[in-house]
Design brief:
Distance between the termini: 60 Å
Radius of gyration: 22 Å
Organism: Anisodus acutangulus
Helix content: 10-25%
InterPro entries: CAT-like_dom_sf, Sec_Metabolite_Acyltrans
Strand content: 15-25%
GO molecular function: acyltransferase activity
Low-confidence stretches: 1-13, 220-236
Family: Belongs to the plant acyltransferase family.
Protein name: BAHD acyltransferase DCR
Structural class: alpha+beta
Strand order of the largest sheet: 1-2-7-8-9-4-16
Order of helices and strands: EEEEHEEEHEEHEEEHHEEHHHEEEEH
């Protein structure tokens, strides 16, 4: 079979790669292109965005893989940009290019029958995911010559994992889960997806930003570690730990009630997100044992689809997020009650309106800066993902995922991913990356754990 590789065995998780193939849209689409806009470009020096879907009790692996590939070919007829590559025009303006001669999405089929689902669903660490997800430490800029989406299906002893690597310069979390749920729809027998993607990015921003970037070494801090199968081995920082903290509906309600109990009557009640954000920010700041004068930053990557003027539909495909920063001194934060933190976060979010977004865009366009994934701020807590994303609705016909996690890319001290709880309630899973000593203190913080 074309593209078939010799079986390989990696040391970390005993994953054997059986073959690599490519999947393209099932019908010819011709040549298409779409300019990347101001909301997309800052992420060129981030790494590919990695997700791991873990499913239990899935049988008939080979048959299911073929069904997944068939569904992928169908969904790419609408989401064809993911089957393309990054390109640049003669003026240095980045774009997504697609034509029928391109390779399409990379699909890796692997087996790891010595691994059980339970080995992957504990709440600690991401290093064990490394060989289950493609594109470790691959910069989005490399989409000039790499697929914009790579997928790995791995057979476990009692289930299957789906490792996904999306080029973050092409899409954000809202678009990611729109794509995933559309793909699952088709695999379950739908003849068309319920909500097609809105693909014209220039409707939200039509400024042609020229960037003089052409290869990974042009981007800051390019990882140049030894590679395995063409992927850079993940920089597993021995001083960084990752942990999932599960907050039940009851715990979320307690946090929200506490934050709103002493809020002034004239203020807008604090939302679940604002309340949980304040709770996490305070706890991480305590755990870091910062000096009173040290600054700490809370960063939210906010969805701007309904904030821009005119508003964009939820189905807008691309990046339509901006970072919102809240900064204060650690001593000031910790010496006030929790509603002080919630108030600052709420104020920053409310003020991030269409005018502010437009001003931020114009400022960036006048002097473009390609961010590194660590640029969220000093002593930061930076929130990605959202408990609103319907990650546990991604059912390919075998039921809901047992667990959904982020990979090791784009992690730094203070990175937080929020996911809904698995059972469909209002609980929230908080996945935190933190310096090891601070993490140890956070794990013992009874106030944070709601054990006080």
């Amino acid at each position: 079979m074309a593209g078939e590789l010799a079986k390989e065995e990696t040391a970390v998780t005993k994953v054997k790669v059986l073959k690599k193939t490519n999947v393209k849209p099932q019908k010819p689409l011709g040549k298409k292109e779409c300019q990347l806009v101001t909301f997309d470009l800052p992420y060129l020096a981030f790494y590919y965005n990695q997700k791991l879907m873990i499913y239990k009790g899935v049988e008939n692996f080979e048959e299911n893989v073929e069904n997944l590939k068939d569904g992928l070919g169908l969904v790419l007829e609408d989401f064809y940009q993911l089957a393309g590559k990054l390109g640049k025009d003669e003026e240095g303006v980045f774009k997504v290019e697609y034509d029928d001669d391109m390779d399409g999405v990379e699909v890796i089929v692997a087996t790891a029958e010595g691994i059980e689902v339970a080995d992957l669903t504990d709440e600690e660490g991401t290093s064990k995911f490394q060989d289950l997800i493609p594109c470790n430490k691959i910069l989005n800029l490399e989409g000039l010559h790499r697929p914009l989406l790579a997928v790995q299906f791995t057979k476990l002893k009692d289930g299957i994992t789906m490792g996904l690597a999306f080029n973050h310069a092409v899409l954000d979390g809202t678009s990611t889960w729109h794509f995933m749920n559309s793909w699952a729809q088709l695999c379950c027998g739908s003849t068309s997806i319920s909500v097609p993607p809105f693909l014209d990015r220039t409707k939200v921003r039509n400024t042609r930003v020229k960037l003089n970037l052409s290869k990974p070494s042009d981007a800051p801090e390019h990882a140049n570690s030894a590679t395995t199968n063409g992927d850079v081995t993940a920089n597993t920082d021995p001083y960084l730990r990752e942990r999932v903290f599960k907050f039940s509906e009851s715990a979320i309600d307690q946090i929200k009630s506490k934050v709103n109990a002493n809020a002034s009557g004239s203020s807008t009640p604090y939302s679940t997100f604002q309340s949980l954000s304040a709770h996490v920010w305070l706890a991480v700041t305590r755990a870091r044992q910062l000096k009173p004068e040290d600054y700490t930053v809370y960063t939210v990557f906010a969805d701007c689809r309904k904030r821009v003027d005119p508003p964009m539909p939820e189905s807008y495909f691309g990046n339509l997020i901006q970072a919102i920063f809240t900064v204060t001194a650690a001593g000031l934060l910790l010496s006030h009650p929790i509603e002080f933190a919630a108030g600052m976060i709420q104020d920053a979010i409310v003020k991030h309106d269409a005018k502010t977004i437009d001003e931020r865009n114009k400022e960036w366009e006048s002097s473009p800066k390609i961010f590194q994934y660590k640029d969220a701020g000093v002593n930061c807590v930076a929130v990605g993902s959202s408990p609103r994303f319907k990650v546990y609705d991604v059912d390919f016909g075998w039921g809901k995922p047992e667990s959904v996690r982020s990979g090791s890319n784009n992690r730094f001290d203070g990175m937080v991913y929020l996911y809904p709880e698995k059972n469909g309630g209002r609980g929230i899973d908080v996945e935190i990356s933190l310096e090891a000593n601070a993490m140890e203190r956070l794990e013992k913080d009874k106030e944070f754990l709601m054990e006080a």
